[in-house]
């Protein structure tokens, strides 16, 4: 279960209880299951989480802007008047910056991180659901192992191992009797044309060997031969 859903199975929990552990190890607990799930941010703001791991990129320009914004937040949170002034000025600043930042030079940290993670976009979209090392391990396992079947087959559960995909028997392909193509039968073949249907055979009685009726409606009395 841990390989598919990143969830510890009941057998592992029994082993932990047997060893005297009172809580699940932190490496088996994802962030989205805890109260810290509110700290989950979109991929472009992943660096501002409390547990983002080592940063890939950093620049003086980005750090200066970050510190100045934090200082403005601290001052704007002083009183109601400061909050109103800060919100008004920051809203106007955002409107002005959206026009100037429409053309991106690709040197920003968010741009460089998105380009660097484009090859592993599936992993990049899943990083904000928990610790990076746990999600990467789960994604690798999910690529190498298929999810178990949700439909329970009829009968007693088998004890044999699952066969590999290349060992499972594939469904035999059916071909058209006229053009030998796949995807249709001879009755719907476009190359069929106006072929006449074969005449239906007349029923033959298995009792008197005459045509036109069957054994259950036969009125002919079988002949009896005596040899003496």
TrEMBL record:
<feature type="domain" description="CCHC-type">
    <location>
        <begin position="204"/>
        <end position="220"/>
    </location>
</feature>
<feature type="region of interest" description="Disordered">
    <location>
        <begin position="184"/>
        <end position="206"/>
    </location>
</feature>
<feature type="compositionally biased region" description="Basic residues">
    <location>
        <begin position="125"/>
        <end position="135"/>
    </location>
</feature>
<protein>
    <recommendedName>
        <fullName>CCHC-type domain-containing protein</fullName>
    </recommendedName>
</protein>
<dbReference type="InterPro" id="IPR001878">
    <property type="entry name" value="Znf_CCHC"/>
</dbReference>
<dbReference type="GO" id="GO:0008270">
    <property type="term" value="F:zinc ion binding"/>
</dbReference>
<feature type="region of interest" description="Disordered">
    <location>
        <begin position="113"/>
        <end position="169"/>
    </location>
</feature>
<dbReference type="InterPro" id="IPR036875">
    <property type="entry name" value="Znf_CCHC_sf"/>
</dbReference>
<dbReference type="GO" id="GO:0003676">
    <property type="term" value="F:nucleic acid binding"/>
</dbReference>
<feature type="domain" description="CCHC-type">
    <location>
        <begin position="175"/>
        <end position="191"/>
    </location>
</feature>
